Amino acid sequence: GSSDWLCATVFVDLSAAYDTVNHRLLLKKILENTNDLAFTDLIRALLKDRRFYVVLYNKQSRWQRQRNGLPQGSVLAPLLYTIYTNDQPMDQNTERFIYAEDLCVTSQESTFEAVEANRTSALDELHFYYERNHLHTNPAKTKACSVLLLIDNKYDYENGPVCGNQHKKWVLYSFYCKVPLGAVLMDLSFHSIWSLL
C-alpha cells in the first residue's frame, strides 16, 4: 500500500583498508584538516623510510620501501584512517554510518525504483571517491540488504483482527545480495524478489 516503506542498505567492505592508504594524500588531508604543519611533519616522520621484506618458502625478498599503508597495532592507525576517509561523499538521499573502515549506506523510500536509484547514485559517488583515494572494495564482502515494511491495518497481535485504521502490524521481509561497487543496482531486479514474497 501507499504507507509501505522499503529500507535499502549497503555494507561496504574495503580490501586491506589500512594497507592501501596513500601517504602523500594522507599528509595533504591532515594539513588541510588541522592547518598544523608541525603535526603534519610529525606524521610524515612516522611514515617515512618504513621498509619491509617478504619471506616465502624460507626465502627472503630484498628490502622494499613502503609507500602506502599505516603502521598498525595502536590507536593511531584508526585515527589516521578516519582523517584519510573523512571526506567520503554523502548522497543527499542517503544516510551513512562509519566506524573506522566500516561503512553502511542506507536509504528509505516508498518504492523500489526510488530506493534503487538512491543506492546506485551513492555507490557511484563512492566508486569514484575510492578510485581517487587508492582504496579498493571487496566485492565478495560488500553486501546489500533491503527490508520491506508492510503496514497491515486489519490485524492486531493482542486483540485480533479489527476494522478500520485502529491497529497496525509491521511485517518485515529482508533479502541480501552481493554488490560490487560500480555495478548498477537497478540490475538487481528487486521486482523479481518481490514476486516471491
Account of the protein in words:
With 197 residues, this protein is α+β, with helices and mostly antiparallel strands. The protein has one domain: Alpha-Beta Plaits. Helix content is 30%, strand content 25%. It contains five helices and nine strands; from the N terminus they run βααββββαββαββα. It has a five-stranded antiparallel β-sheet, with helices on one face. The chain has a two-stranded antiparallel ribbon with strand order 2-5. α1 runs antiparallel to α2 and α1 packs across α3. The protein is elongated and about 60 Å long. The two termini are 15 Å apart.
Total strand segments: 9
3D shape: elongated
In whole angstroms, the N-to-C terminal distance is 15 Å
Question: From the coordinates shown, what is the CATH architecture?
Answer: 2-Layer Sandwich
Structural class: alpha+beta
The number of helices is: 5
Task: Write down the Rg.
Answer: 23 Å
CATH topology heading: Alpha-Beta Plaits
Pfam families: RVT_1
Domain Reverse transcriptase: 1-175
Organism: Sparus aurata
Protein name: Reverse transcriptase domain-containing protein
Q: Which helices and strands, and how do they pair?
A:
Layout (H helix, E strand, L loop, with lengths): L4 E8 L10 H12 L2 H11 L3 E2 L2 E2 L2 E2 L3 E2 L10 H10 L9 E5 L2 E8 L2 H21 L10 E10 L16 E10 L11 H5 L3
Antiparallel strand pairs: 1-7, 1-8, 2-5, 3-4, 6-7, 8-9
Helix pairs in contact: 1-2, 1-3
Please outline what is shown here.
This protein has 197 residues and is of the alpha+beta class.
Fill in the keyword field for this structure.
197 residues; Alpha-Beta Plaits; 5-stranded antiparallel sheet; two-stranded antiparallel ribbon; 5 helices; elongated; disordered C terminus
